[in-house]
Amino acid sequence: METVSQAEVKTGPLGDSPSAAQTESLIDQTTRPDCAVIALHHVSREYSGHGNVVRALADASFSIVAGEWVAITGPSGSGKSTLVNLIGCLDRPTAGELKIDNVDVASMSATELDRFRADKIGFIFQQFHLIPYLSALENVMLAQYFHSMTDENEARAALEKVGLGSRINHLPSELSGGEQQRVCIARALINDPPILLADEPTGNLDAANQKIVAELLQNLHAQGHTIVMVTHDPEMAALAQRKIALSHGKVFCHPIGGSVVTLRQR
């Protein structure tokens, strides 16, 4: 089995190797547990079946700090969904430590994890996942219900924030794809979570609505929200401060404004 021994920092495909001090500085940008809202330390996720073990995520170590916007990229089968499920507390690692807001989620019971997820993470899905027989307002209030409280005025304000103040009583079938995605964003924001986890937020949208959603995410980031975004779209990825690329279950972190940190195998 391949293991990861240490980080190797490169300035680019043809760049010169930096000094030891530069290397340490760049690694600090990708692993800052002292101020991290998300921190993975040697996290792996394996699945067993038919006598085989598939390592979907291999020995990942990185941190995301509060207020950062990170894009997760990679081809199909690279481990993006596995990583998102772990960060979103929808799954648990096979090995390693995963902390969300400085809490080790692996130690929680299923009930505790459900509550923690509702408090800490707002989800924006590519497929929207709106309840078809509920209005836009009721879909947003549903997220409040799972947080053990509902406030119609807050839900209205959340929809107004994303430009849907005049569409609050419309069913999903009466909304465009872009409007449905904006309902999803309002739903993700309603409980004021510290982390927004966006899975291909513009994947099902036309160019005009892609621009609207991109501008909303930019505004949310400017307001201090931490955004973790999975995307295949290079234009959306370029909006993020940093990229985390996956290939065959291994993580490759790009520090903010710096060189590419890759992983040396032995």
Structural commentary:
- The chain has 8 helices and 12 strands.
- With 266 residues, the chain is of the alpha/beta class.
- The protein has a single domain (4-265), classed as Rossmann fold, CATH 3.40.50.300.
- The strands form 3 sheets. It has a 6-stranded mixed β-sheet.
- Helix 4 (136-145) crosses helix 5, helix 4 packs parallel to helix 6 (177-189) and helix 6 runs parallel beside helix 7.
- The N and C termini lie close together (10 Å).
- Residues 1-32 and 256-266 have low confidence and may be disordered.
Secondary structure blueprint with pairings:
Elements: E1 4-10, H1 20-30, E2 36-49, E3 52-65, E4 69-73, H2 80-87, E5 95-100, E6 103-104, H3 110-120, E7 121-124, H4 136-145, H5 152-161, H6 177-189, E8 195-199, H7 207-222, E9 226-230, H8 234-237, E10 242-247, E11 250-254, E12 260-265
Parallel strand pairs: 4-9, 4-10, 7-8, 8-9
Antiparallel strand pairs: 1-12, 2-3, 2-5, 5-6, 10-11
Helix pairs in contact: 4-5, 4-6, 5-6, 6-7
